[in-house]
């Protein structure tokens, strides 16, 4: 028996057209200059986090066609440093859509401009909430259309991260009471 896709409607009651992962995929790059490096000539982790937030917001905004705000950063892993003079390349894509929020995955690479060698340096998962243009209140996000096995895997894993994130949020609230 085939499951029927749930029809997603906007707050105005109109049906929202789903979007593929590829439609909102985003990429950006910049040269690592001295102003954003530490005393060892390595790209500052805080600057990497800023760039991750920017490229992730691009994908979330493209998917939702709206303003977005960062709700959480579940995970950021610094695997390899990025050196002064290298090119830092960031790629983002929406992994999963919930009602008004989206998880975006980001991969960061460094590229040696002289040799072309590329290294995976950072992975991050960022959650955004889409906002209505006028009310600035959360708005319903279009569904995500999955086409590849990789996109389906990322979708499943995003669901597991969300369960953990919500459990931790509930646990924190209980401690604060």
Low-confidence stretches: none
Describe the largest sheet: 5 strands, antiparallel
CATH homologous group name: Hotdog Thioesterase
N to C succession of SSEs: EHEHEEEEEH
Structural class: alpha+beta
DSSP strand tally: 7
Separation, N- and C-terminal Cα atoms? 46 Å
Proportion of β residues?
A: 25-35%
Q: According to CATH, what is the class?
A: Alpha Beta
- How many domains make up the 3D coordinates? 1
So, CATH architecture? Roll
> What is Rg?
18 Å
Number of helices: 3
Provide an overview of this structure:
The chain is α+β, with helices and mostly antiparallel strands and 177 residues long. The chain is 29% helix and 33% strand. A five-stranded antiparallel sheet has the order 2-4-5-6-3. A two-stranded parallel sheet has the order 1-7. The radius of gyration is 18 Å and the shape is globular.
What is the topology?
Layout: E1 19-20, H1 21-24, E2 26-31, H2 45-64, E3 67-78, E4 87-97, E5 101-111, E6 118-131, E7 144-145, H3 149-176
Parallel strand pairs: 1-7
Antiparallel strand pairs: 2-4, 3-6, 4-5, 5-6
Quick overview of this protein structure:
With 177 residues, the chain is an alpha+beta fold.
């Amino acid at each position: 028996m085939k499951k029927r896709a749930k029809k997603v409607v906007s707050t105005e009651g109109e049906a929202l057209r789903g979007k593929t992962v590829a439609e909102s995929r985003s990429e950006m790059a910049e040269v690592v200059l001295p102003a954003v490096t530490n005393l060892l000539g390595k790209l500052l982790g805080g600057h990497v986090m800023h760039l991750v937030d920017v490229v992730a917001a691009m994908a979330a905004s493209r998917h939702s066609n709206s303003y977005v705000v960062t709700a959480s950063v579940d995970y950021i892993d610094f695997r390899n440093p990025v050196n002064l003079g290298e090119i830092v390349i960031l790629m983002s894509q929406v992994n999963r859509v919930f009602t008004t929020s989206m998880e975006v995955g980001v991969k960061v690479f460094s590229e040696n401009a002289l040799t072309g060698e590329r290294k995976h340096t950072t992975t991050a998962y960022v959650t955004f909430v889409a906002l209505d243009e006028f009310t600035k209140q959360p708005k319903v996000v279009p569904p995500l259309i999955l086409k590849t096995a990789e996109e389906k895997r990322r979708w499943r894993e995003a669901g597991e991260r969300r369960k953990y994130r919500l459990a931790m949020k509930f646990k924190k609230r209980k401690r604060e009471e």
